[in-house]
Amino acid sequence: MASAKFKQPPQAPPLFTHTAESIISETERLNAEYKKDLDEIVAKVKPENATFKNTIGPILVDDDGSAVLRRVLNFYQHTSPDAKLRDASTKADDITSDFDIECKMRQDVFDVVEAAFNQRESEKLDTESLRVLEKERKRYVRNGLLIPDGPKRDRFKEVQKRLAQLCIQCQKNLNEDKSAIWFTPEELDGVPEDDINIADLEKGTGENEGKVKLTFKYTHFFPVVKYAKNAETRSRYVIEDANKANHNVPLFQEILELRDEAARLLGYPNHATVNIEEKMAKSPAKVNEFLGDLRTRLAEGGKKDVAALLEYKKKDYAERGEDFDGNFYMWDTSFYSRIMKEKEYNVDEIKISQYFPVESTFNGMLKIFEEIFGLLFVEVTGDDRKQISKTGKAEDIVWHDEVRLYSVWNDEADGGEFVGYLYIDLHPREGKYSHNANFNLEPGYIRTDGSRNYPATALVCNFSKPSGKKPSLLKHNEVVTLFHELGHGIHDLVGRTQYSYFHGTSVVGDFVEAPSQMLENWCWTPSVLKSLSRHWESGETIPDDLVSKLIATKNLNSATSNLAQVLIGTFDMTIHSPESHEAIKKMDAGRLWNQLRHDISGIKGPEDIGKGYNWGNRHANIGHFIGGYDAGYYGYLWSEVFSTDMFHTHFKANPMDKEQGRRYRKVVLEKGGAQDEMEFLTEFLGRAPSTESFYRELGLA
Ligand SMILES: [Zn+2]
Question: What is the per-residue pLDDT across 624-641, written as a single tens digit (0 to 9) for each?
């Protein structure tokens, strides 16, 4: 039981009390204050007396002080149930992007930052401050400040502004996507009622008479591709899914051309080089080598996977008494993988999901983090919410009444200090961000008076809602996803940096997934799975035989699924490193995607049944390419190398090892981005990282 002290966090949580008007006015106020700070810096400081303290210092103080409000104002667009607030938040985001570009292109500010950078040796800066100085300077450089004043510089600025608008627009289109497809109940034969209750679906009228409406959200997508027996249904569904964001296609093409133009104006050969130079990989060549190597090593395994799945398809057709043409298509993969799992491994995902109701599973996950990292999670409900709310109103500290809130502490043995706030928003809603992700709402940092500001972090998920008397049940892959996102949340919560600049998950893009990916391994550990499980009716834990069968499927069809990642990474690198600007203008990204998909996966698609390579634009609905993972998607596979190495080296023997857990928290998680990632990774491993565990795990060593 939590003691009384744990009811009174030393810092109130953020407020979600904004109106559409105040979202805009507050944004404008923050921007005006920031501008004033910059004006003051350049008024006071001359290049000859510029130091970290008098140039970057005030910028960081402003960053820290405005951080929570900026994040909250930005957050409404992804989560507010009120469309007006979402629109205002999107607009505010737009205003700030424009403003940021203006600021980061100020020659007068850059002159003093550059001077401070050149004089850095004379100041005895700590590692974190030095790192901010280097990164800030680079940010100005990447914003074109070394481009001579004149038409080239003006064009660069124009390009940046347009790019920011386009990315916001594309993301908004994805968030608000309402595409749907109509099927008769017969066409959906095989889809379990547990997953999609046909009676709950919207019924069609007119030309859709007798049909029901399905969306392309996860809660519909996976059940259809995994369970719909009718191949025509699956094929129509995946092709339609690849066309749901066609209005993004021209916008995306413009993004690609502008990114390329901007990179060339900066003097870089392409956008990928700009984005990778500061990452762990350092250069596109290194990334291409990594992806190419993986593609080669996985190709054979991919063929074997498909051959095995083909056998299941053959048997399935024989059982149905239908003719089989010997072909295996992209819309068959999930369906026959699921059958293979059920038949060969006797793994029934629906049966397993009965042991993982989202509530108790989530609580079990928190317990795991309590044990290994020495944390304590105290749920804040009812009147306790009023107590900690700055306005005294419980509803003001959440953005929707389904949101759960925890105050997080170090446990008593670890000092009992407050750590921060954790929110979870589990189920889909109209207009809500449609994937699963972690959002920082307030960063941690040291205030000017020396006290610590504590972070707040939110998990925004889309697990199916409870239906009838059944709670929301998680399939095993969803258990893994939730654990993964919670892993980002913990990374965000335990950060202990000086500046918000490097707080939590503010690490390089090709490392940021590693901590969460490492934690996924816990969900493949029998003892952990048992501790997380609790049958929603009987309360029993999952039986051992079900667990061992499930674990046996860990790397089932892993060549195929990793090749799918290689595809996205390769596409991403190809579109962001064209040979010339002409080449990007001529590029047909949709066609390129379909061609790469066909070649890399080795699985047939619409192009093999006479539909050509222009049958869909799957690439236009991958938010990663617009949301900051551009020329960065490889990072998922790249950081998997590190995560596997860390897990095998220090946790495989005992994932619940408290000592290693706390050491990991201290050496890796607490650092945020304040130290070179390779340095703390090497410190944690006790040697330089190696790819060996990764390839061994995939059976490719
Ligand atoms: Zn992640």
Answer: 999 889 999 999 999 999
pLDDT at 1: 44
485 is an active site residue: yes
Residue 284: strand, helix, or coil? helix
Q: Which of 316, 153, 92, 332 is nearest to 225 (CA)?
A: 332
- Kind of pairing between the strands at 445-446 and 456-460: unpaired
Q: Which of 485, 513, 520, 670 is catalytic?
A: 485
State pLDDT tens for residues 193-244. Answer: 989 999 999 999 999 999 999 999 988 999 999 999 999 999 999 999 999 9
Q: What pLDDT sits at residue 354?
A: 96
- The answer to whether residues 284 and 276 touch, using CB atoms and an 8 Å cutoff, is yes
CA distances from 217 to 224, 246, 434, 435, 561 (A): 11, 16, 7, 8, 20
What DSSP assignment string belongs to 290-341? Answer: HHHHHHHHHHHHHHHHHHHHHHHHHHHHHHHT----S--BGGGHHHHHHHHH
488 alpha carbon to ligand 1 midpoint, in Å?
Answer: 7
> 64 near 499, Cβ under 8 Å?
yes
Distance of CA 663 from the midpoint of ligand 1 (Å): 22
List the beta strands (DSSP E) in 103-260.
Answer: 180-183, 212-215
- Contact present, 600 and 567 (Cβ < 8 Å): yes
Among 447, 445, 469, 464, CA closest to 456: 445
DSSP class per residue in 637-684 = HHHHHHHHHHIIIIISS-TT-HHHHHHHHHHTGGGTTSS-HHHHHHHH
Six-digit token string for 589: 């990204």
Mapping DSSP to helix (H, G, I), strand (E, B) and coil, where does residue 443 land? coil
What span, in angstroms and rounded, lies between the C-alpha atoms of 421 and 405? 7
- Determine if residue 108 is left, alpha or beta; phi over 0 gives left, psi from -120 to 50 gives alpha, anything else beta: alpha
pLDDT at 202: 95
Give the per-residue pLDDT at 468: 83
- Domains, the chain, in order of start with CATH, read 20-146 (1.20.1050.40), 178-225 (no CATH), 358-557+636-697 (1.10.1370.40)
DSSP codes, 188-219: GTT--TTT--GGGSPBP-GGGTT-EEEESSHH
Low-confidence residues of the chain: pLDDT under 70: 1-3
pLDDT of 306: 96
Task: List CB-based neighbours of ion ligand 1 within 5 Å.
Answer: 513, 516
Specify whether the CB–CB gap between 659 and 534 falls below 8 A. Answer: no
pLDDT the model gives residue 2: 54
Tokens representing 297 are 């090593």
pLDDT at 175: 84
Looking at residue 4, what is its pLDDT?
76
Q: What amino acid is encoded at 280 in this protein?
A: M
Residues in contact with 88: Cβ distance below 8 Å, sequence separation at least 6, in sequence order:
20, 21, 23, 24, 76
Ligand 1 centroid distance, CA of 698 (Å)? 20
Cα 139 to ligand 1 centre (Å):
25
Residue 448 phi, psi (nearest 5): -60, -25
The model's pTM is 0.86
- Torsion over CA: 382, 442, 124, 40 (sign): negative
3-state secondary structure of 452: strand
- The per-residue pLDDT for range 355-373, each reduced to its tens digit, is 999 999 999 999 999 999 9
What's the rounded Cα separation, in Å, for the pair 52 and 77?
Answer: 35
Residue type, 228: A
Tell me the CA–centroid distance for residue 239 and ligand 1, in Å.
27
Q: Please state the φ and ψ torsions of residue 512, each to the nearest 5 degrees.
A: -55, -30
Q: Exposed/middle/buried for 265, CB within 10 Å: 0-12, 13-18, 19+? A: middle
- pLDDT at position 96, please? 95
Give the Å distance between the CA of 588 and the centre of ligand 1. 29
Q: Could you tell me if 390 and 404 are in contact, meaning their C-beta atoms sit under 8 angstroms apart?
A: no
Residue type for 97, please?
Answer: S
Q: Please tell me the distance between residue 321's alpha carbon and the centre of ligand 1 in angstroms.
A: 44
